[in-house]
Amino acid sequence: MAGNPFERETLNLLLFDWLRIDTLAELPAHQGQDVADWTAVLNLADRVSKEALAPAWRASDRTEPELRDGVVRVEPGTRAAVRTWLDAGLHLAAVPEDEGGLSLPFTVAAATMAMSMASHIAAASFPMLSVANSRVIRTFGTAAQIAAFAAPQQAGTALGTMCLSEPNVGSSLGDVATRAVPDGHDDLGPRYRLRGTKMWISAGGQDITEQIVHLVLAKAEGPDGRVISGSGGLSLFAVPSVLPDGRVNDVAVTGLNHKMGWRGTPNCVMAFGEKTGAQGWLIGTEGQGLPIMFQMMNEARIGVGIGAAALAWRGYLTSRSYARERVQGRALDARDAPDPVPLTRHPDVRRMLLAQKAIAEGSLAICLYAARLVDLSGAGDEEAETLLGLLTPIVKSWPSEMGLVANHMAIQIHGGYGYTRDFEVEQIYRDNRLNPIHEGTTGIQGIDLLGRKMLFDRTGGLDLLLRRISETADNAPDDLAGCVTALRAARKALEEGVAAAHDMNDPAAALANATQMLSAAGHVVAGWLLLDLASTERAGEGQKLACRYFSQFELPQVRAWLAPVVAKSDLTATLNEDAL
Fold it and tell me: Residue limits of the Acyl-CoA dehydrogenase/oxidase C-terminal domain (predicted)?
């Protein structure tokens, strides 16, 4: 599909008619701005996505990054595309004005991110990671650290990474083995020498910028050489590839991981301190590494959801275009017709297109709704902050998992052609397959949702969500009555499922079924927002169709997902491992 595979009409409907982002101009951070300003930025992002990012997407899949002479070489078109995005200043959209940014609402920045990710998700990931990195430094770093490590990223002369995982440590970050030994104090604060290996580091090496600022989780050694075990011993360090005095730091890419998709972004094995020790500076205080990194991780999780939603949209638009043009078979009600009909005449193809539309629209709605909550919570809205905390694992996981379902259907509609590299839907699927894995797997998100956000939550987040769902159902128009009935039934099932998990009085056993709870809750949230969107005055037939499809075909699955939770199943918690 040529150009930016995104429907601006739908995006504008979500932003301006449904979310009413014009009201965000009333917030102190955005006073003096208006819809015209934001539309200009959206138009710029649209143009850069079409003209710079989209043309490099296919080439980045065929020409993977190379590690040559110690330097990671990115596919040239992708390198140029990232530079164009940075030179346009689009990475500064949500950065405060007094820190060199545009001070736009995060909701607008999220929309620009969606367009870039639909065009070339691998290229878009470079600035996404860097924006999150610099935000952490601006929030927790000293003035000198901000000037040395965040300002170059905002100027586009550096890019940033997050270095958490290790070869034997994925999500269990308390087991991180990288060590940081105190090495004095200078203008940038407490200095350390880091030694260790990091794995799965996106953009850990690249030739787009000369400087790379790594945020590294490590355990600081005390005077006696000991470290605190577990996650409480983790600290965060800014480790630049080039030191402030111009010398090259003791940081090296020792290998590249060859990925199924998303190949344009180098995925690196990183060695810190193989020679004299990599110099790094403490961000915040010792022992606060994980809480600080959660800010970056939560921001990245919203970014993951946006990327999955964008790829679901791209797959939908691609397969819809193909189904309208491709003729195959006869209609069920005209079997003797002399000529074959477009695929769109077949009910099962219509079902798959409707499913893709509902998933893509629902995913984008979830992500942009969460982005608006970020804006409101930043202005002191406590309900927005509470709801955002509850929804974050859903924002990350539901578009990721269901986006794959949509992309699967896109391939199916293409038939055998869809399984070949000549058609782009197979690359869309491969690119999206990463999203359920990184920034916390689906299982990790389920434990977060059911454990921290439901069983042990004291903020009232679930009650707030259930109340918001009821309000939407109460205010829906009469022509969506069937959708209202389905949503209320799903809401009740979710409430009963959470109550059953509480009644187990055994958190470990309850959390064994956390992924089922996550799937069910994600469907309920998607059904809620699709109904809310379809109830918007300017919603079209497409939004109402998507809502009706989801209500009839998808929401009934909520009870099935919750069946083992309600039954208090302990099968996976107590099974004999040797029987597997």
Answer: 287-446
